[in-house]
Amino acid sequence: MKLNILHMTPDFNYVDGRSYYVYLLLKYTKLNGHNVFLFTNAGNSFDRLRELNIPVFSFPGLSRKTLFLKSLSLLRKVVRENQINI
């Protein structure tokens, strides 16, 4: 069964161990035949994902408390439009 899966991380950078782990999750989930997406606020290593044709949704205010409702609204929109399994 093919799933649509959304991964989230606050920053997606080359020098961050968490980002590398998220990259591995995205890569191998994609290689197993699932549709994967990344939702993040910033980063400098999006080119790794372009090579795998993984869509990235970037919203700079994702980690700000003052923009929480806007972030939540954008997240709901991405989930709804891409029929992501939660």
Structural write-up:
The protein has 86 residues and is α/β, with parallel strands linked by helices. 41% of the residues lie in helices and 24% in strands. The chain has a three-stranded parallel beta sheet with strand order 1-2-3, sandwiched between helices. Helix 1 links the parallel strand 1 (4-12) and strand 2. The radius of gyration is 13 Å and the shape is flat. It starts with a strand and ends with a helix. The mean pLDDT is 86.
| Residue fraction in strands | 15-25%
End-to-end separation = 15 Å
Strand order of the largest sheet: 1-2-3
Which structural class is indicated by helix and strand composition? alpha/beta
**Largest sheet, if any?**
3 strands, parallel
Mean pLDDT across the residues is 86
Q: Give the total of beta strands.
A: 3
Overall 3D form: flat
- Helical residue percent? 40-55%
SSE run = EHEHEH
Radius of gyration, CA atoms, in whole angstroms: 13 Å
Low-confidence sequence ranges: none
Counting H and I runs of at least 4 residues, what is the number of helices? Answer: 3
What's the short version?
By secondary structure, this protein is α/β, with parallel strands linked by helices.
Please render the helix and strand layout as text.
Blueprint: E1 4-12, H1 17-31, E2 35-43, H2 47-51, E3 56-58, H3 68-82
Parallel strand pairs: 1-2, 2-3
